Structure formats: structure tokens, C-alpha cells
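Section 5.1 Outputs to date
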Amino acid sequence: MSYSSALHLWLTRATDDPDLRRELESIQSDPDAVADRFYRDLAFGTGGLRGVIGAGTNRMNIYTIRRATQGLADYLNASGLPKRVAIAHDSRHKGKLFCREAARVLAANGITAFLYPRLEPTPALSWATRYLGCGAGICVTASHNPAQYNGYKVYGADGCQITLEVADQVLAAIEKHDYFDSIKVMDYDAAVEAGLIQSIGDKCLSDFVDAVLALRPGNDVSHLKLVYTPLNGSGLEPVLLLLKRMGIPDENITVVPEQAKPDGDFPTCPYPNPEIREAMQTGLALCDKVHPDLMLGTDPDCDRMGAAVPDGQGGYRLITGNEMGVLLLDYICRVRLSKGSMPQNPVAVTTIVSTDMATPVAAKYGVELRRTLTGFKFIGEQIGLLEAEGQKDRFIFGFEESYGYLSGAHVRDKDAVNAVMLACEAAAYYAAQGMSLLDAVNALYAEYGFYRNELHSFTFEGESGMKTMQAIMAGLRAKPQTEIAGFAVAGCTDYQNGDTGLPKADVLEYRLENGAKLMVRPSGTEPKIKIYLSVVAASASQADQINQVLAAAASGWMKPNA
């Protein structure tokens, strides 16, 4: 179908959301804008759907939501899985609408939908999927993407994002449907009356918080003084409930007022990602007035956590995702060994792009460290494998460099509520020794060497951008690198070859003779190629200098035929 024909079809048929018709009418004379909306179907994979909200097949709207849900319903009805689906959303625009539309399609297909009555975090959806005995879960969120995005994450009965195999099966079912005629939709009120749409009760969320609390090492945190920001997302309710149950007095908690209420525009941080200083800046400014022991921030769907601590010079320093991951891994090992609660043959899990520093830390404590592909679903999958072997208690911690952490098997996705608990516990543990979390990080550097990690992202928008990304990766594979920035390449791993013991993935890893690691990976959720750098040296400045020259060399690759 031509782009103009697709535009005409949607102008004729997409009548259930007036916003879509207004948008389509406004772009009729702009062929590039039309092409961008219709040049492809929004990609569906293990992360579900994610894209800009708007009209067309390459946008997030009620019709792409309905079509994806029809495919999921077909998959569930053809399986032996329970015909029940839990659904949640965060603060993003049209989140509630998309949840209702998904529920209507499920109900029309004889599947009971359980909806949280208000916005809730992604980990609370992972929890509800298992808690309610569902065959699948749906979380309407775009995580930390900019305000114009929304998404549709699909979870399996195990509470983990769906596997590659299941994603392929659901996608095959989706592709059998058009956007209008073959989708079953039931009236919402009629579905509620029939019991096919039900509300998730407050006990589900309360029990989720209790499950997080059950993982506490047990340090006294009542003296901690905190600044917290939910970045206008879904974290406020569960995080404050957790902190109260941990025994931190209300007067010791200052919530960043500009970022407290849910707001899909994210007015103080256009890119609501706690990895980025800009998103945390409003909270950091408040720290200069409140002087907390710890500042914590969670992203809109509350699965990522960022932190800042006093720098000893009157300011505050952000802790990176890799630093927090290694700090918490070391802390959990220390405390569990001291309390005699470390399991036999403990397992920690991280990803191939996360810091190499985790390797010597795990080795020190006799912990088996497993590395997975990028994406917390693969860490959750490792928990599931241990559970299938009757050994889920061996799992002690999982983390990824993009600010995702998990210390228990209560959910199968990164959990910022859990991470807030761990950060508070660790801060209290080190405070009792006269140390800050920054002191603890520096002590790890002194013991293991200065591991410095950087992430550089290169954006390629639209249809031409996708082709450029493909050309860049093809060019790198066609022309093997023997040296990078003057450093000899000791080895290259192409995860697309399928010989790594992991699923095939569009990732290239270069190991250099100086011990550095450089990885190239197209994002699965954004139009970006990401370059991950990991260097260890005798000093931070030396490691930063090596990273700088490696980044400059890699940036030169970001053109086709470079």
C-alpha cells in the first residue's frame, strides 16, 4: 500500500480518537511526515512496542495497541496459559486510554483483564502478573524516553518480559491482522459488567512492598535524611510507602515538589532519565538547601533508580549505574556473609555491556557471575532458570549499567522500589562506619583499580536513519578493526554469529590489549547506536583519558562507509 493510500485509509477509518484525525489532516501536504508515519509497522519485540504517540502504523495509538493486543490474545488462546492478563500504566500521555483499549480487546477475546486503578510502577506489574496467576502482563510505558513517547511492554506468566521465542510467536499472530477490520473490541462497561475487566485491589501493591521489605538486610535507617524525586512518574506512592515501613520519619524525607505529581510532559526534565544529570538537576538544587545524606530519583515507570551523595566539598556527586551496581553487589555479599545468610553457590547476574569491575568483586566473595545480553529480561530469565532447578535462592543480585537493580526473585524485572531500599540500607551501613556511599565507592576503586565506563549514543531518526544504522553495522562487520585509537585489538566478538552461548544479537565487542572494552549496539527501543566503553587504569584521570580517545575514534564510525 502506498503512503498516500495508507493516509486515506486512516483518515477514513481512524475515527475513535479525534486527536489522530486532526494530526492526519494537518500533514496531508507534507509527504515526508506522511512517510514517517507509514513507512513501517511499529516494531514489536521482546520489549513490546515503543514509539512516538501519534497517528499511523509507525506510532503509538489505540489502533497499534489494539492490533498488538489482538495478537497477544490469539497467542494466549492458542496456549495452555491462564486466560488472565494484568495491566498497568505510568504517567505518560494516553496511558490510561491505552490500558482500557487493551482491556477491551482482551475481553472481546474471552480473556479477563486486571487493571491497576491508577498509575503504578513496572515492577508492580511484574509482581501482579504472578500474584494474580496471569498468563501475561502488559505495562503501558516508555520508561525513560522523552515525553512524546509511549510504549507497550509484554510480560510472560513468570513476570519476566517475554522471551525471543514468545515475541516471535506473538508477532506472527499480530501480522495476521490489519488495523481495523479483524480486531475484536468489547464495550468497556459491558466487559466490566461481565467480569471480564476487573480492578486490581490495594492489597496487591501493599504485598509487593512487603515482598521488597522482606529482602532488607536490617540496618537502622531511621536517622537517614533523604531527598526523593519520582520525576513526575509512578514512584511516589510505592516509594513513600516503602520508606515509611522502613522506619524513616516523614520529616526526614523531602520530595522534590516540581517533580512530585504525575505529569506526562515532564516539564522540568524533557528526558526523564535518572542517568542524566539534567533530569536530576532540580533535585540536586534542592539538596543544596536541604543537605540530605542521600538523594534518590526514579524514572517514570519506577524501574530505574539514580542516586547522588555528598561529595565532601559541599556539593553532591551522582553515582553512576555501574558504580551503584558494583557497590550494591559488594554490600550484599559483605552483609550476607556476616549474617550467615549467603546461599551455597551464590549467583549474581549482569549484562555484557556492564562494567568489568563486577568480575573481580564477585570472585572475591566466591559468587558465580553470569553475563547476559542487554535487557533486564535476560537477567529475569536467569532467575527463572534457577527457579526451575529448585535453586532460586542462589540468586543474590542482578544489575545493568542503565540503573537497573534487583536483589530478590519477587519480580523478574529491574525494580527501583527494591533499589531505593538497598541504597538506604547501604547508606546506613556505611554511615555506622563513618563512611558515605562515595567513600565506599572510592574504597572499591582503591582495591580493584579505577574502572571507568562511558556511554555514547548516536541518533538516527526516520526511515533513512534506520538504513544508516544498518549500513554502519554492516560496514563494521565487513572491515574488521585491528586497532582503535592506536590500541591493538586483542579480540572481537560478534554476538550475531550465535557462538557466544547467548542468543544472537546485533552487538560487536572489541577487547583491546590494554584491557579496555568497546561495544557497539543498536538500541532495541530507540533510533540510536550506542557505544559502551569500559577502561581500567591506575588512576581515574588515566582511565578517563583512554576513554576520551576511544570515544573519538568510535564516533568516526557513525557514518556509513566510514
